[in-house]
Design brief:
Structural class: mainly beta
Strand order of the largest sheet: 4-1-6-7
CATH architecture: Sandwich
Shape: globular
CATH class: Mainly Beta
CATH superfamily: TRAP-like
Number of domains: 1
Number of helices: 0
Bound molecules: tryptophan
Radius of gyration: 12 Å
Number of strands: 7
Order of helices and strands: EEEEEEE
Length: 73
């Protein structure tokens, strides 16, 4: 079930944004969370959230492995 999928986002700089996008016909931003360096967010995909966008430098721990996003150059 998609709802059991947790991911962990560890911010590597100030001002990392975790943006939740809606599930369904419309794909829209519905929530934006700002993390500062060292802050961690543990999040799930849910009935309301089908995708997440991470903006800024972070480590993202998922069942697929660890992904590192980069800050804007
Ligand atoms: N109310 C949202 C939901 O249940 C909260 C949420 C879950 C969320 N996962 C998220 C918000 C990921 C931002 C990013 O879907």
């Amino acid at each position: 079930m998609s709802q059991s999928d947790y991911i962990v986002i560890e911010a590597q700089e100030d001002g990392v944004h975790v943006i939740g996008l809606t599930r369904g016909v419309d794909t829209k931003f519905h929530h934006s969370e700002k993390l500062d360096a060292g802050e961690v967010m543990i999040a799930q995909f849910t009935e309301h959230t089908s995708a997440m966008k991470i903006r800024g430098k972070a480590k993202i721990y998922t069942s697929y492995g660890i992904i590192e996003s980069e800050s804007k150059k």
